[in-house]
Design goal:
This protein is of the alpha/beta class. The protein has helices at residues 3-15, 58-71, 86-89, 115-123, 160-170, 211-218, 232-235, 254-257, 273-284, 297-307, 331-346; strands at residues 20-30, 39-42, 48-49, 75-80, 97-106, 128-135, 145-149, 152-156, 177-181, 190-196, 201-205, 224-229, 245-248, 265-268, 290-293, 318-319. A hairpin with a 5-residue loop joins β2 (39-42) and β3.
């Protein structure tokens, strides 16, 4: 249930003209399912899209959202599940953590902001910052927002003068989410600053039958996937419909058809030696941090030998054979291994067991 699914549900509910509630985790402590900056949507039917917990809190949160939907006043709901406090809610969650969640109404009168702006910015491939007031003060009400991205400046509940003054706060670097005390004249107001980033872009070089399972795993993890192949019969297959973009062109023309600077990862899997060699030669001249090559080690070594000096640009970036060692040799298992490794690299993780050792 990633951003793609959240955005698609938002599109559907907005098209129906429904009044929604945006629930944003603004603070956590201890062990929690979600962290600050995480968002879900709650509809007027008590349906929700996304999870802030493992499904334990969402029903109660939908009830809390009713008041916000009714009066339009944003409010903060706190779930303190640490120690014996869990018994207060009678939920038996056992997460041993605290969550503070801001509820904001989204409706036609405000253009469903700030969600509409977030969706538009992400889909347009823009980066930016969203400021959400979490504690009122200095004329700012809780739930007031200011979104600033490339070519987009959307204020909700903040007048033009205040928005101008708050651009200084928005200019601060935000890796993901952090709480900031707002400067005078807005003190003692506080705000959650969250990064707005485009979907990570994955380039799949090759359109063989084993690409469909890769798409099935990559899309739910919010990767924007481009599939590229020189064979029209391959790129025309119906099972590639989950790709965001399909390009049919010679391997040597890759740089002409794809913005390689915007790609965060590439998987070379054409099963065609000359094409793979050409793809690797082009990728060696880029800064794409993750380049994976399907096939055994001896195939990788052969291709690197044939590339010669040009292949040195792949040093420290090329993963071949692609993926983690999961022990599967089916297309689905290999796809899982590749996407798991890709996710770990993207988030700077080691891909070691979370337990640290076998139980």
């Amino acid at each position: 249930m990633g951003l793609r699914t959240l955005f698609e549900r938002f599109d559907a509910w907005r098209a129906e003209g429904r009044t929604l509630v945006l629930a944003t985790v603004i603070e956590t402590s201890g062990s929690t399912y979600s962290k600050a900056g995480h968002r879900i949507l709650i509809a007027d039917s008590h349906e929700w899209q996304g999870l802030v917990s493992g499904g334990c809190l969402e029903g109660d949160l939908a009830l809390q959202a009713e008041q916000v939907r009714h009066d339009g006043q944003a409010r903060v709901v706190t779930y303190d599940l640490r120690g014996d406090a869990d018994g207060v809610f009678g939920l038996g969650v056992g997460c041993d953590g605290l969550l503070r969640i801001l509820l904001q109404r989204l409706d036609p009168a405000t253009g469903w902001e700030p969600m509409a702006g977030i969706v538009a910015a992400v889909r347009d491939g823009q980066t930016g910052t969203l400021l959400t007031v979490t504690q009122p003060g200095g004329g700012l009400a809780a739930g007031a927002t200011l979104l600033q991205s490339e070519g987009r400046h959307v204020a909700t509940g903040i007048d033009a003068t205040a928005a101008g003054a708050l651009t200084v706060v928005l200019a601060r670097s935000v890796a993901h989410a952090r709480t900031a005390a707002l400067p005078p004249p807005f003190a003692p107001a506080t705000a959650l600053l969250t990064a707005v980033d485009p979907l990570p872009r994955l380039l799949v070089l090759g359109a063989g039958p084993d690409v469909a399972p890769l798409l099935a795993f990559a899309r739910p993890l919010d990767f924007h996937v481009t599939v590229y192949d020189h064979r029209p019969a391959s790129t025309a297959r119906a099972d590639l419909a989950a790709a965001d973009r399909i390009v049919t062109a010679p391997a040597a023309e890759l740089a002409r058809h794809v913005d390689l600077d915007g790609c965060g990862a590439a998987v070379v899997m054409s099963h065609h030696l000359d094409s793979d060699r050409c793809y690797l030669a082009v990728l060696a001249g880029t800064a794409i941090p993750y380049v994976a090559l399907l096939g055994p080690r001896h195939r990788r070594e052969r291709l690197l030998r044939e590339l010669g000096a040009a292949g040195r640009g792949l040093a420290g970036r090329l993963r071949g054979p692609a993926g983690l060692d999961l022990g599967h040799d089916t297309p689905e298992g290999i796809a899982l291994a590749i996407v798991a490794e890709l996710a770990a690299v993207r988030h700077g993780r080691s891909a070691r067991p979370l337990s640290g050792e076998a139980a």
